[in-house]
Write a structure and sequence with these properties.
alpha+beta, four-stranded parallel sheet, 18 helices
Length: 451
């Protein structure tokens, strides 16, 4: 029988991090104690199609990863949260479920997939403001994270690849698995390239993803998707708008209609977080609301509902919150508000994804992006030493050294928070600095569909 200590050791050795975007080291999470282990398979962001397809294709491995997570944390029940529309994943998992694991079927709403909202929907428990899932006895991992846990524990296989979706204005929208460090430009080429010329790109989903300055940036352990959008699309324009312009808009056109607060998911479940009051406070130099109200900006999940769906005049309470968060954290301030009663209409005020997609003008860009099994090796990979929360990994290879796929190339100092890094291809180390390791592959290959 695999022990909790062995599970954590192998997961740490494999460099597993949370694949949902935050990149928290999985071995640290598995050292916690909880009664419930929740698999977040909701795939929060529109246009991304990774976890839903992996759950259908690798149901048995997902359940093994969940079992290891439950063993490590002492959890007595497992819950797999999936949207009802993920029929193939539900069909694959249902006959394999053990007695202590259940499926929880979610409506197609946003932000189902935000861990605090998913915990509430799947268990009825509410994480307190500025709290953690552990505060209510829950540990949360997404599908790809637990598949990596299963590979680490069962096969001692480190994380060297990442599954991501390439969607939007591309000729062949797809979901594929690539070696870490593959340039995003090559992921785009594997999708046939852009379907028109005037295109800009987002790393991640349309709500929380970042505008890409260059497609030369690499695939990392937390890359969820590559979206190609028209250069004049509203999502691109919003991301190009500077902080000063955002604050000026908030100061001049905010109507204080408080719809951003009415639809804020965290506010709906009982957190104080009132975006309209925070915007007012910033507009009037923090006059009016009590200090804790401004500090509530620290509890913003950055889901983007306020700017993308709620605001009728195109301002961004989200960006105001982000600026405040940076300022407040620099001052070492923390929020300590109470959990309030949930809004009795909370479940009915979460945003239907179909309406969100239409509001964002994404209907014609939301393709199925089916999974394609491609054997692909790039000519070189660029591997950032920090693909996780915490300190950067420290190189343990030298310039000119020949490495093999899966070989440890950067380790964490004793006691530091972070994750080990492994070579994602066979090749030679051709560049090495405090931020990245570059490996030139020995035999680059062209994409070949696997059976």
């Amino acid at each position: 029988m695999t022990t909790a200590d062995l599970i954590r050791q192998r997961v740490a050795a494999a460099g597993v991090v949370g694949a949902g975007g935050a990149g928290f080291p999985a071995a640290v999470k598995l050292a916690a104690r909880a009664d419930t282990y929740l698999v977040n398979g909701a795939e929060c962001e529109p246009l991304l199609k990774v976890d839903q397809q992996l759950a259908a294709r690798e149901a048995a491995a997902l359940l093994r990863g969940l079992r290891h997570g439950m063993t490590a944390t002492g959890a007595t029940q497992g819950v797999i949260a999936l949207k009802a529309k993920y029929r193939e994943a539900i069909a694959a998992l249902t006959p394999l479920l053990p007695a202590d694991v259940r499926l929880h079927i979610l409506e197609d709403i946003y932000p189902a997939g935000d861990e605090v909202i998913t915990i509430w929907l799947a268990t009825g428990r509410r994480v307190p403001p500025a709290g953690l899932p552990l505060d209510v006895g829950v540990v949360v991992s997404n599908v790809q994270t637990l598949l990596n846990v299963a590979a680490a524990v069962d096969q001692e296989r480190p994380v060297t690849r990442r599954t991501l979706t390439v969607n939007g204005l591309v000729k062949r929208p797809l979901t594929l698995t690539l070696p870490l460090g593959t340039p995003l430009r090559e992921a785009l080429e594997l999708a046939g390239g852009p379907s028109r010329d005037d295109v800009a790109f987002i790393d991640g989903g349309p709500m929380m993803g970042k505008l890409l300055p260059s497609l030369d940036l690499p695939v990392t352990k937390t890359t969820g998707g590559l979206l190609a959008l028209p250069r004049d699309h509203l999502l691109i324009r919003r991301r190009q708008r500077g902080d000063a312009a955002q604050l000026a808009m908030a100061r001049t056109v905010c109507e204080q209609c408080f719809l951003c607060t009415e639809l804020c998911p965290r506010h709906l479940i009982g957190h104080e977080l009132p975006p309209h009051l925070i915007v007012r406070a910033v507009n009037y130099r923090h006059a009016g609301p009590r200090p804790d109200t401004v500090l509530a900006a620290l509890t913003c999940s950055e889901c983007g509902v306020c700017e993308a769906y709620a605001c009728p005049v195109e301002i961004s309470p989200l960006r105001v919150n982000l600026l405040l968060k940076a300022e407040l954290r620099a001052q070492g301030l923390r929020y300590r508000g109470e959990l309030r009663p949930a809004d009795p209409m909370a479940r009915h005020r979460l945003v239907p994804v179909s309406r969100l997609i239409t509001r964002l003008d994404l209907d014609l860009l939301n393709h199925k992006a089916p999974f394609q099994a491609l054997a692909y090796r790039p000519e070189k990979v660029v591997l950032p030493l920090r693909q996780h929360i915490g300190a950067a990994a420290q190189p343990c290879v030298a310039m000119g050294e020949r490495v093999r796929e899966g070989q440890l190339i950067a380790a964490m100092p004793q006691g530091a928070l972070g994750a080990a890094l492994h070579a994602s291809v066979d090749g030679v180390v051709v560049a090495l600095n405090a931020e990245t390791i570059v490996i030139q592959t020995s035999e680059p290959t062209c994409p070949t569909p696997s059976p």
